[in-house]
Design a protein that fits this description.
412 residues; alpha/beta; UDP-N-acetylmuramoyl-L-alanine:D-glutamate ligase; Protein-Tyrosine Phosphatase, Chain A; 2 domains; six-stranded mixed sheet; 17 strands; 39% helix
Length: 412
């Protein structure tokens, strides 16, 4: 399981996935899908789309990764997690097949999801890739729409050392003739998508060319398309200023689904959906408020681009003193990311309870070399408890560094 063990768990090709699905009578060919790849933002966009589609009356599947607390978070139907009875029955029934194919954890989970969505007769499933795109298990689907979000440096040992190399892996989800939406225009990689889309005769769209969002009063947004305001005073329950870019991508995708794929998505469904993403889909860990007095926030950002927007958001917060509970996994560029953190904060270095975790003593040593001072704690719970005890009511506590640090917050 890559989530816990890292590279040893990867089986980076489509062979096993196709064998599993073929034995299940190819459920992925019987479900309409929307396929999303990218470095940052794909999870938020996936949950936004699922929330709006189910609010519009569509029976909606949602496949995402990794999970924070429970495996069943990965597979949802209209926001409800797949039942444990289905999971156990699937594994029991397919055990001979699993033992024969010897697939990865992710390959089994994706096959399970597609079987579940087919059996539940979903009308559309929103599918988030795992790490990459081209050789990701999910890339066997033939979607109605492909979406690629932000491209930034992450998992370079698997995807490539440069932005264009990583973009080429993500562009692997582009299919012949299938519209592809790029949610963020980045000059360094635009040619990668343009060339791939042209090669496959896939209509290429950029979200910012279809619409743009202006900040309105009270944290709301006005959405302008074709020179006209078509959504006024839009509100989303996803916190953090970086969600504006994700919202642009999600709304542009909905526009394309409405105009090109035969969906009927009214303004009321859009407004209600994006205003209640957390309630409708169960999304957690994105600029999530986990406590008051002192104010406590958690975010799963774990690469350079993600951390940049989180740190920008922290700068907009008002507080007397900043306390940061921080842990990482071993396959990240710890020195580079630690060098981005504010030196004046109080630090509580922690170690998530997974084999991939960066040992807390090593993390503390690296942090000290970057001018960051703090104590080391064996667990996330111990570090957060220490921060809560030390912080005053007008301070701010931030918990982050890894999805797996946020996952171990007890009251998430």
């Amino acid at each position: 399981m890559f989530q816990r063990s890292g590279a040893a768990a990867l089986k980076y090709d489509l062979h096993n996935t196709l064998r599993l699905l073929q034995a299940l009578d190819n459920p992925h060919q019987k479900v309409r899908t929307i396929h999303i790849a990218g470095t940052n933002g794909k999870g938020s966009i996936a949950h936004m789309l699922a929330a709006v589609l189910q609010q519009a009356g569509y029976r909606t599947g949602l496949y995402t990764s990794p999970h924070l607390k429970h495996f069943t978070e990965r597979i949802r139907l209209n926001g409800r997690q797949v039942g444990g009875d289905f999971v156990s029955a699937f594994v029991t029934r397919q055990r001979p097949l699993i033992e024969e194919v010897n697939p990865s954890f992710f390959e089994i989970t994706f096959a399970m999801a597609m079987q579940y969505f087919h059996e539940q007769q979903v009308e559309v499933a929103v599918i988030e890739t795992g790490m990459g795109g081209r050789l990701d298990s999910t890339n066997v689907v033939q979607p109605l729409l492909s979406i690629i979000t932000n491209i930034s440096l992450d998992h370079q040992q698997f995807l490539g050392a440069t932005l264009p190399a990583i973009a080429a892996e993500k562009a692997g989800i582009i299919k012949p003739g299938v519209p592809v939406l790029i949610s963020e225009k980045q000059p360094e990689v635009a040619h990668v998508f343009a060339n791939r889309a042209a090669e496959l005769q896939a209509p290429l769209y950029y979200a910012e060319d279809l619409l743009h969002i202006e900040q309105a009063a009270g944290g709301r947004y006005n959405v302008i398309a074709g020179g006209q305001v078509y959504l006024e005073g839009l509100l989303t329950d996803l916190r953090g200023p970086y969600q504006r870019q994700n919202l642009t991508g999600a709304l542009a995708a909905l526009q394309l689904l409405d105009s090109q794929a035969g969906f009927s998505i009214g303004e009321e469904a859009i407004c209600q959906g994006v205003a209640n993403v957390v309630g409708l889909t169960g999304l957690k860990g994105r600029w999530q408020l986990i406590g008051e007095r002192p104010r406590q926030l958690a975010d799963t950002a774990h690469n350079e681009a993600g951390l940049q927007v989180v740190l920008a958001a922290l700068q907009q917060e008002k507080y007397r003193q900043l306390h940061i509970v921080w842990g990482m996994v071993q396959d990240k560029d710890a020195g580079r990311l630690l060098g981005m953190l504010p030196p004046k904060a109080h630090y509580y270095f922690v170690q998530p309870q997974i084999p991939r975790a960066l040992p807390v003593a090593q993390l503390q040593q690296l942090a000290t070399s970057q001018g960051l001072q703090g104590q080391a704690y064996d667990t996330v719970a111990a570090g957060l408890q220490a921060a809560r005890q030390k912080a005053r009511e007008d301070d701010l506590i931030f918990v982050g560094g890894s999805t797996f640090v946020v996952a171990e917050i007890d009251d998430l």
